[in-house]
Amino acid sequence: MPKRLLLALLAFLPLRLHAQQTETQFLSGTDKDHTKKWKFYCTAGRNSGKWTTIPVPSNWELQGFGKYNYGHDKDPDRGKEKGLYKYEFKVPKNWEGKTVNIVFDGSMSDTEVKINGQSAGAMHQGSYYRFKYDITRLLKPGKTNLLEATVAKHSANESVNDAERRGDFWLFGGIFRPVFLEALPTTHINRVAVDAKADGSFKADVYTQGTAADEVVGQLYTLDGQKAGSEFRSAVAAGGAATRLQTTLSQAKLWTPESPNLYRVAFTLRKGGQPVHTVDKRIGFRTVELRERDGIYVNGAKIKFKGVNRHSFWPTSGRTTSKALSILDVNLMKDMNMNAVRMSHYPPDDHFLAACDSLGLMVLDEVAGWHGSYDTPTGTKLTEEMVRKDETHPSIVVWVNGNEGGHNFDLDPVLDRMDLQKRPVIHAWQVFRGTDTQHYINYDYGNGTHLQGHNVVFPTEFLHGLYDGGHGAGLEDYWEQMWAHPRSAGGFLWDFSDAGVVRTDKGGILDTDGNHGADGILGPYREKEGSYFTIKEVWSPVFFERREITPAFDGSFRVQNRFHYTNLNQCKFTWKLAQLPGPGSKAAPVTKTGPVAAPSVTPNGTYGTLKLDLPTDWQQHDVLYITAQDPAGREIYTWSWPIARPDAVAKQLIRVDGPSAARLTETDSLYTVAANGVELTFGRKSGVLRTVRNAKGVIPLTNGPVLAEGETAFEGLTQRQDGQNVVIEAKFAKQSRYQSLQWTVYPSGWVRMSAKYFPKDYDFALAGLSFTYPEKEVKGAQWRGDGPYRVWKDRIKGTNLGVWTKAYNNTSTGEMEGTRGPEYPEFKGYYSNFYWLTLQTTGQPFTVVCDQEDVYLRLFTPRFSATPYNTAPAFPNGSISFMHGITPIGTKSQKAENMGPMGKTNMYYDYSKDPSYAKEITLYFDFTGQQATPAAVGKR
């Protein structure tokens, strides 16, 4: 046994030899993956009217009982569902003389409990709260006992339904969290509240029951069992009052989301020096302050919350989750560089809070309420239950009293009274106690309010994701504004994952209730959407100023430290240089890597220089990557910078020479050009490419180039022989947005297309050129550019430069595909920083090479929902496009143009109509059926 572990065990040994610990016996399973069968009877809906069995914990809809309901539905029968549970159990004979409680961690919604035919106490109303009954007098230790529970899916108390059952989320019934017994000595500790401050001061209120004790003794420990400081004690307070204990821990390691240091504190109730009962809690030292007209501070550092709203949810189990799922979700949030999470719209499982404690996420814990609130007697009881269960978690930094109008002001004094730490209390979507938490405010909105007001701006929901809109789309504009504004405390995205529930009544399909539940950054099974990576980059605490890599590059980058507590010299940086493969190659990039000396840059916005020591041949590579890791070894982000620009790459790929000169023939309607087995026809009356053919057959790329927007005013084609090449040029009328269009067919069979044009107006939605290709013949694509996820005008970040291969899919983001979640990354859409594309088809592949920067590749038009709100941007006609200007995407509640500068229309100023200011694009097409590898380079 390791020495450290032995010392840890010895540290607790005296207590465990003499003091009585709380004994726990689970009657149910512990989570969604570990359940126990109970007898069950459902009163309405599927499989009702008969006794059978059900796993506990669970939601009964997912087990084939009752009826699925979403909070908005008007089902007149939804109040009829009840579940009757029975479970037989034994308790040890030696529990005689102990106090025994039965504890329900969560039951939806009204719950009546009987033990051996007798009521355990008053009906509990409210779903998400831990409640318990003292059943000592009802038990038969050593014999078989019968638990009976009647659970009503909807409450007899309409205020409970208003707060919990009429929200914008799925409604379920059942005992969905664990049920267990706890056995305690008759004199015991029944509640502990702690306040461990950043200055090392510690106080605790210990609540006891019974009379056979005279003092409470406390001891702090590190998590490996080492004593931290000395014992501290106090005489038990008389009359049932709390016993106050205090101490100070010198040089306490503080809890922050960047360094979540934890301690354990053990409280021992003693009588005449002998231990009676011991309780220990995991705690952290930290101080939370809301400073009026300033901000929210944790340990003296002003915080910008980078948060997300999270439901307790899993597709196959509803609200029944697990410790493993909690750890997964917290890690996903940390991987997105988030530092906070809001519990929407109810308190979570205890294991989720434990994961936030240990991994480092600040938590907004919330009394349920959604446009409606609990009545005062019910709300008071439930608020007290929430605080008792959650109060010692250092991750909880703010309490939330209801959501979007679901605020009962009578509950604020309950939180004030109950919370020893006096954490801030807010009302989500309300100006309250110096915070402005309004939801879905437009960018830079306000006339004496929001960022133009005086309160701390703290939106508990902003950027309401729907399908592929919101979340990452618009975030960079909002975040840069939030980061710079002194009264902004950051905010929370809506929401973490799509609420796609498995419909056991519909063959196991995943259902988001249309657009109601398709709001996630992640799919229902935590599939990563494009916004996941955008958030990761935008919320990176290491911020790189934009810079170009030129031959004069000396390896230096100006970086900003956006951590709140961490110096950049605590992080790890590495560089990688890569030579990327060419079209058709399956080879991995050729790379060189090396470390970077992490500079000392202090937190909260300080700038410094990151200097790379690159090899002398760095310019022979295509791309530079830099990866940053935080002090725990978690990747912050990997950034990429192009070294080789598109014109240099194009020169390597394009082949000009061939066995004989290109030749042209003509008819009244067509020009036909042939070279090296490739034949192209151009419509003399339309000016567009009509057909492409080679020795193996037709390549059905047609009808291009067509302007995305604007008048073409085509007048005719001219042709000429230019040495070995054939050149075809278009003529346009004065009103045309085209300035020029030229095709050059080389003897190699390669084809060059060059065009100049002006966008439709000074501000415009789309600018570029399109071709048509039958989508049904596409199998996939390989391309060089930013990927693997698509982009929008207001969601450019979150990609890397590389060579990407992707199979075709027709995913509509957030829409469920039968029993499966969506397939990511999506195939169709816009891709930035385009170099070349090889389209993989059921017939022949072909390659397109671009020799200019700032061009977007468009691959077909995504399939959008029938009710997309603001999340179905305009796309150009045609199938495959090469764009200078693309569209942004909005959110469920906001148009893109209201979400910041990136959401505005594209702008291109040209008052002179001078052709030198026209947009220009040059593309090279390889229709030969041969792969355009650098080894096949010909002269240009």
Automatic annotation (TrEMBL):
InterPro entries, A to Z: B-gal_small/dom_5 (IPR004199), Bact_Beta-galactosidase (IPR050347), Beta-gal/glucu_dom_sf (IPR036156), Gal_mutarotase_sf_dom (IPR011013), Galactose-bd-like_sf (IPR008979), GH (IPR017853), GH-type_carb-bd (IPR014718), Glyco_hydro_2 (IPR006101)
Statement: the UniProt record of this protein carries the keyword Calcium: yes
Residue intervals of the Glycoside hydrolase family 2 catalytic domain: 289-505
Source species, domain of life: Bacteria
GO biological process: lactose catabolic process
UniProt cofactor(s): Ca(2+)
Keyword Calcium included in the entry's annotation: yes
Pfam annotation, one family: Glyco_hydro_2
Domain Glycoside hydrolase family 2 immunoglobulin-like beta-sandwich: 187-286
SUPFAM superfamilies noted in UniProt: (Trans)glycosidases, beta-Galactosidase/glucuronidase domain, Galactose mutarotase-like, Galactose-binding domain-like
Assembly mode: Monomer.
Family: Belongs to the glycosyl hydrolase 2 family.
Protein name in the entry: beta-galactosidase
